[in-house]
Amino acid sequence: MGKILPMLPDPHATKQAVIEIADLHKRFGAHPVLQGVSFTAHQGEVVSLIGASGSGKSTLLRCMNLLEVPDSGRIVIAGEQVAFRNDRKGQTMVADPRQVERIRTRLAMVFQQFNLWPHMTVLENLIEVPVRVLGQARPQAIELAETLLAKVGIADKRHHYPAFLSGGQQQRVAIARALATRPSVMLFDEPTSALDPELAGEVLKVIRNLAQEGCTMVLVTHEMAFAREVSSKVLFLHQGRIEEVGTAQQVFESPSSERCRQFVNAQF
Ligand code: ADP
Ligand code: MG
């Protein structure tokens, strides 16, 4: 009889895949921006996307929540595969607009520039989508909104308009607004790049708390120390390809790609 080899425990054996991306391609005109990107994010994982400006990080995030439609490849969000088809001009589109709506409620995005609705108070920003799009009852939506505002430390500003808040406060409201739809995954696109270091710190603290609570997220960031601290998986993107993937320790301390090593060294 052969020796029985001990099985290595698979850390994801019981964890569901929340995002599955396979062989994603996207070009703008003649410029190939994503050239065969594949990765999976499991429930509770924090996946960081790092790479030089122009490497395709935002495009990859935008493809996930269908703000951009990829030219080819497969996207599965919370078990649902996005159905693409080609129109008569040969352009790829999402087959079903209702699917776009559904997918967008599962992936909530936080942008560099906050993007709060300026004519609505903080509280109204939070309940708009739950009440008007998802059809939730207003009192319940307000209750959740207030809980979330307390969580991000902004409860006392709920009746203020965004223009009267600091950038850090606005971004924390944007995070609370994203959480208000109870998404399966949070997408962050350089959430602190528009902020002074001090204000960035208060936003990173909120993201760190979410990570510790097991919130699944994909994070594009230039905050390398933060990415190293919170990520369960780090992807280094170079010219639209994943050049390096691994745990934070692998990617930051012993990358196999020379380009990744140079990029990481230049950041610290
Ligand atoms: P990153 O977020 O890593 O800086 P992006 O995904 O924003 O990179 O951009 C990757 C490349 O795609 C860049 O060269 C950018 O100029 C180009 N690009 C992004 N969006 C568009 C667009 N809507 N139209 C044309 N080119 C675009
Ligand atoms: Mg970007």
Automatic annotation (TrEMBL):
<keyword id="KW-0472">Membrane</keyword>
<dbReference type="InterPro" id="IPR027417">
    <property type="entry name" value="P-loop_NTPase"/>
</dbReference>
<dbReference type="GO" id="GO:0016887">
    <property type="term" value="F:ATP hydrolysis activity"/>
</dbReference>
<dbReference type="InterPro" id="IPR050086">
    <property type="entry name" value="MetN_ABC_transporter-like"/>
</dbReference>
<dbReference type="GO" id="GO:0005524">
    <property type="term" value="F:ATP binding"/>
</dbReference>
<dbReference type="InterPro" id="IPR030679">
    <property type="entry name" value="ABC_ATPase_HisP-typ"/>
</dbReference>
<dbReference type="InterPro" id="IPR003593">
    <property type="entry name" value="AAA+_ATPase"/>
</dbReference>
<dbReference type="InterPro" id="IPR003439">
    <property type="entry name" value="ABC_transporter-like_ATP-bd"/>
</dbReference>
<keyword id="KW-0067">ATP-binding</keyword>
<feature type="domain" description="ABC transporter">
    <location>
        <begin position="19"/>
        <end position="264"/>
    </location>
</feature>
<keyword id="KW-0547">Nucleotide-binding</keyword>
<dbReference type="GO" id="GO:0015424">
    <property type="term" value="F:ABC-type amino acid transporter activity"/>
</dbReference>
<keyword id="KW-1003">Cell membrane</keyword>
<dbReference type="GO" id="GO:0005886">
    <property type="term" value="C:plasma membrane"/>
</dbReference>
<dbReference type="InterPro" id="IPR017871">
    <property type="entry name" value="ABC_transporter-like_CS"/>
</dbReference>
<comment type="similarity">
    <text>Belongs to the ABC transporter superfamily.</text>
</comment>
<keyword id="KW-0813">Transport</keyword>
<dbReference type="Pfam" id="PF00005">
    <property type="entry name" value="ABC_tran"/>
</dbReference>
<protein>
    <submittedName>
        <fullName>ATP-binding cassette domain-containing protein</fullName>
    </submittedName>
</protein>
